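hey so i finally got around to running the thing on that chain from the lab meeting. sorry it took forever, my laptop kept dying and i had to restart like 3 times. anyway pasting the input first so we r on the same page abt which one it is
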Amino acid sequence: MPQTFQQSVITEFRANAGKVGGPFEGTDLLLLTTTGARSGKPHTTPLGYVRDGRRLLVVASNLGAPRHPDWYRNLLAHPTVRVELGGEEFDSLAVPTEGARRDKLFARVVAEAPGYAEYQDATDRVLPVVVLELPDPDAAAPPIASLADKLMEVHTWLRGQLRHVHDETEAHFAARAGHGRDGEPPAPGLGLQIRQRCLAFCQALEFHHTAEDGHMFPTMEGYHPHLRDVFDRLREEHRSIGAVQSALAHLLADVTIAEPDRFRTQLARMTQELTAHLDYEEEHILPLLAEAPWPPAAA
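ok and heres what got predicted. didnt touch it at all, straight out
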């Protein structure tokens, strides 16, 4: 079957470390892989970008069409995306910008790629500007030699993301405190940055717990039957934390998070339960994994 034009661009990009010819020759181009909002399948799209410090800016222009492109709707449902840039490949959190920040960054894009102004003039919708953070070159990960190290890497990431969400939420509520007086506009809902980070965290946590319940815990329980009570407690905590995740996911379904006070309450509960859960798991499970190599030895 002959390749579509888009697939031919993707093939050429990957074969030439990001360089392509034809209409995109000389263009700053990246490949963005999103997870389908409905299908859950990966979708890769070539996109032009503008570099802004340690950030890449992409615009959901859809050539000025009246609807957002599919890749934009996908990243609202699944904020963690895969970026291919030249010969480099990395995961990133996709965060659409809002208000004055969006306008400033759109002007930055138009200064380098004036065609986006024409796309904006062609449609009534505001073209979203999405920020993709580049990896921190100074954030060297510690070496991972065992399954215990790998588990701690995951736990450290989860704790860090939860702190980020908490700090951003509290900063938002501090800003809200100035609203509500006579003549002032109503307090805004929680922003897209908080929503995207929290949604990415919730999805990663669900994946982690599903993998533990489906694979790691049953295998370990076979070798350590005397710890059955420990595994039963961890599985029960997964269910309890999952209920909080579901409540948060329901609130996150609204792009503006229309009930920020309720969100804050659920986030506090998530923080308390998850922190205690991770501490307990590390106390009882990590010693059992210290001698298991990572990556696992071939069968």
